[in-house]
Design brief:
CATH architecture of chain B: Orthogonal Bundle
Number of strands of chain A: 21
Number of domains of chain B: 1
Strand content of chain B: under 5%
Largest sheet of chain A: 7 strands, mixed
CATH superfamily of one domain in chain A: Dipeptide-binding Protein, Domain 3
Radius of gyration of chain A: 26 Å
Mean pLDDT of chain B: 85
Largest interface: A-B, 37 and 30 residues
Strand content of chain A: 15-25%
Low-confidence stretches of chain A: 13-24, 538-542
CATH topology of one domain in chain A: Dipeptide-binding Protein, domain 3
Helix content of chain A: 25-40%
Radius of gyration of chain B: 22 Å
CATH topology of chain B: MetI-like fold
Distance between the termini of chain A: 39 Å
Oligomer: heterodimer
Shape of chain A: globular
Helix content of chain B: over 70%
Largest sheet of chain B: none
CATH architecture of one domain in chain A: Roll
Structural class of chain A: alpha+beta
CATH class of chain B: Mainly Alpha
CATH class of one domain in chain A: Alpha Beta
Chain lengths: 543, 267
């Protein structure tokens, strides 16, 4: 027998085994900016824990971040009944957790009970707390389960996008998961290593089990500069959320790395302190309570410049409470508040203010001067504050910019109320206003920042907002809910308790070696389809 | 080392002069040329513009003015407090000295930066940038006396037991007169040295506060706010003119040390 065919067979086998090795050793890497505080999916509330939850947790249904539509996952069907109080799921059969424990309706019931247990203080459960009383769960069959909440919850099904199902029976407790990956190793301050869940239920169209990538290494790296250098040097595969400066820098080096997915859900806004018991002089309280004053200030701010200069063009002037990225809920009738200092001065003049030697004075002769606080170290907010300072000087208003460390700022805006105006942002993860906006718009809400925790609404328009928010929260008809929340947006546009400034863009950077990555505006922007992402074999071989 | 002192003083005088002439040689430090953010150096903007389009040359001059004017003022305040507290403790000795030094040790063990951040956060919000910068440096002066007080106390103690003080006591001099006429003049070299040491320390502390975003309020520049531009990787590459405030800062602090070395050798 000739030696040549043996050599060929050996060569082919060697090549195949190398490819197989490369495939099996594929590892995706990216950075977390802090250690995850918990691996319990029901307790996740900061970015790192939520990232681990997203990568490991199996959910009943998932909001497709691209289409913004709800898609079946562990539940194949679901039905909301009883005026929004009850939801019934039909589950996939034959699934198992990462440790091999079978998945059943008992696990769903257990997870919901755990989530609603007041002693656990689950942040995920907060969105479901619609009224007093206990949640009732019923296992109707091994693949059917229902949950009845004490009061109707609008958008109930969408809330389950955040609920990772835990095993009721597994000895590994929350470490037994139904998502594409399971936590394999964690070194505090160093990394979290996730390995492919071999029991993951999803397969691609060719019948191959997902996810494609064998493991995910989450390097804990708080320094953004180091994160960017790691990406440039090929040590990580993407940066999920990128600053405008880093985006521009990477754009110069390698335009194929960066993605601007357009305007995100996040907003930056200013509000005036309207708390009646705040230690402000009465004349200032009167300014801040005046709609004309707030609208005049709003019109004197050049939002286009804020977006162009402060955010390097990677933001859009904000119209109102919601960003256009929220396709369903955004009220398209609203128009941008114009930058018009003449109109601003006319409004102020109608309200009794007058210009005197380039300085604005109120009807009692008080010079219009106030301070704006923002958190120290946030360069975008510091830039915006400095720009607003210059804009307001155009209408004779003297603005003092004060940057405070975050705990001091929170103390002032939530407890002592010893501040005049505040510039902060809102990071918005949810599309449905019922889950993310209730606490902001209800006058009794703690996040009703300009005048929180009111016993009764201080103004007629706040009373109307309260009524509309309850209406949208208790109505199951999406059109009626939309109409109610549109009116809320219009009232906020007219009254401007929050002066919305900009919506920043969702910026990310992805290595060309990562395939099937489609960054979107909703979190998590880059890895929302983690189980479908793959990496080039060359890269895999080198790791 | 005389040449070093002359060079140091000469450089500091030159910088001071440039700062005093700032209104005549540089446009406004606060005006935002919003169509030219992060511009490269040009005839109109000698050191380019910052991220909001403000003239960096003007900001460097005014920022240096702020830091060079107020850091010595804060150093003077802390040196006076050090003489008052440390001098009295060392001269009186006994339980007074032990008590004062225990308080000084306690003061030294406090985390300075956090203390400054806390005190800064408690201050009234509605103050002008000028007042804000003055408050920042007064705080630095009021909190920075402890280390100098220990040195002054040790020196005052040795003076209190020296022969010439004994002679002065024998001649009928006592109490405040003895302290004022005999001890304080002899503390001068050590106090002078402590004063010079404090200036760069306060400049650095203000810069640290500025880097944390808690220093001088907008739109007034200071070295702290100017150095913040160098925080990000994107700033370090491609725009070398952004290093000018850092180079000037290092040069000025080095010159203070050159002058200080000469003072120490004199002392």
């Amino acid at each position: 027998m000739s030696r040549k065919p043996i050599f060929h067979i050996f060569f082919v086998l060697a090549t195949l085994s190398t490819l197989a090795f490369a495939q099996s050793n594929q590892q995706l890497r990216f950075c977390l900016h802090s250690d995850p505080k918990t691996f319990n999916p029901l307790l996740a509330e900061e970015d790192s824990s939520e990232t681990v939850r997203y990568l490991t947790g199996g959910v009943l249904m998932r909001l497709n971040r691209l289409t913004q539509e709800l898609e079946p996952e562990l539940a194949t069907e679901w039905k909301v009944t009883d005026n929004g109080k009850t939801i019934t799921f039909k589950l996939r059969e034959g699934l198992a957790f990462s440790d091999g424990t079978p998945f059943s309706a008992d696990d769903v019931a257990y997870t919901i009970q755990q989530m609603m247990d007041p002693s656990l203080h689950s942040p995920t459960g907060d969105a479901f707390r619609s009224g007093d009383g206990k949640v009732q769960t019923k296992v109707l069959a091994p693949d059917r389960v229902s949950a009845t909440f004490p009061a109707p919850i609008a958008g109930l099904d969408k809330l389950f996008d955040q609920v990772a199902i835990m095993s009721a029976k597994s000895p590994k407790k929350e470490m037994a998961v139904l998502g594409p990956y399971a936590v394999a190793d964690y070194k505090a301050g160093n990394y979290v290593l996730l390995e492919k869940n071999t029991n993951y239920w999803r397969h691609d169209s060719a019948g191959r089990q997902l996810p494609y990538i064998q493991s995910v290494r989450l390097d804990i790296q708080s320094n953004r500069d180091n994160e960017m250098l790691k990406l440039v040097h090929g040590e990580i595969d993407f940066i999920n959320s990128l600053d405008a400066e880093y985006y521009d820098k990477l754009m110069q080096q390698n335009p194929s790395l960066v993605h601007d997915s357009g305007v995100s859900l996040d907003s930056e806004q200013v509000w005036f302190n309207q708390v009646p018991t705040s230690p402000l002089p009465d004349y200032k309280k009167a300014w801040f309570r005046s709609t004309a004053f707030r609208r005049a200030i709003s019109e004197a701010i050049n939002r286009e410049d804020l977006a162009r200069v402060a955010f390097r063009g990677h933001a859009r002037p904000a119209v109102g409470p919601l960003s256009p990225a929220n396709k369903f809920w955004f009220d398209t009738k609203l128009q941008l508040h114009p930058f018009d200092q003449k109109s601003s001065l006319a409004r102020l003049s109608q309200d009794g203010f007058r210009m005197q030697d380039g300085v604005l004075k109120d009807s009692s002769g008080h010079t219009v001067e106030f301070s704006i606080i923002t958190n120290a170290g946030n360069k975008y907010r510091e830039r915006m504050a400095a720009m607003i300072q210059q804009d307001l000087s155009g209408i004779g208003v003297k603005l003092n910019v004060v940057t405070l460390d975050f705990p001091s700022l929170i103390e002032r805006i939530t407890r002592s109320f010893d501040y005049e105006a505040c510039l902060l942002g809102l990071i918005n993860n949810d599309l449905d206003p019922n889950s993310s906006q209730m606490n902001v718009w209800l006058s009794s809400g703690e996040n009703h920042q300009w005048n929180p925790s009111q016993k009764t609404p201080a103004t007629s328009w706040e009373a109307e907002i309260d009524k509309l928010m309850h209406e949208q929260a208790t109505n199951l008809d999406p059109k009626k809910r939309k109409a109610a929340f549109d009116r809320v947006q219009e009232i906020v546009w007219e009254q401007e308790p929050f002066i919305y400034l900009v919506n920043r863009n969702a910026l990310s950077a992805v290595s060309p070696n990562a395939r099937n990555v489609h960054p979107v505006v909703l979190r998590p922007q880059v890895y929302w389809n983690i189980d479908e992402i793959s990496i080039g074999n060359e890269v895999a071989r080198n790791r | 080392m005389k040449w070093a002192r002359i060079f140091g003083i000469g450089f500091l005088l030159m910088v001071t002069l440039a700062c005093l002439l700032a209104p005549f040689v540089a446009p406004s430090y606060a005006h935002q040329f919003r169509d030219e953010p992060d511009a490269a150096p040009s005839n109109q903007h000698l050191l380019g513009t910052d991220d909001l389009g403000r003239d960096r040359f003007a900001r460097v001059l005014y920022g240096t003015r702020v830091s060079l004017l107020l850091a010595p003022a804060a150093a003077l305040l802390s040196s006076l407090l050090a003489v008052l507290i440390g001098g009295a403790a060392g001269f009186l000795g006994g339980w007074v000295e032990r008590l004062v030094m225990a308080a000084t040790d306690l003061f030294l063990s406090l985390p300075w930066l956090f203390l400054l951040i806390t005190v800064r956060a408690l201050l009234p919000l509605n103050v002008s940038p000028i007042t804000s910068v003055a408050i920042t440096f007064v705080l630095l002066g009021c909190l920075g006396w402890a280390a100098a007080a220990r040195v002054v106390c040790a020196d005052a103690r040795s003076l209190a037991h020296s022969d010439f003080i004994l002679l002065a006591r024998a001649s009928g001099s006592s109490g405040f007169r003895l302290l004022w006429r005999q001890v304080v003049p002899n503390l001068r070299p050590i106090v002078f040295a402590q004063f010079w040491i404090s200036i760069p320390v306060f400049i650095l502390t203000e810069a640290n506060l500025g880097v944390l975003g808690l220093g001088v309020a907008e739109p007034l520049p200071s070295w702290g706010s100017l150095l913040r531009e160098l925080q990000s990787y994107s700033a370090i590459t491609g725009q070398p003119w952004q290093f000018v405030p850092l180079i000037l800062f290092v040069a000025v602090v080095s010159c203070f040390h050159l002058v200080l070395l000469e003072q120490e050798s004199l002392a």
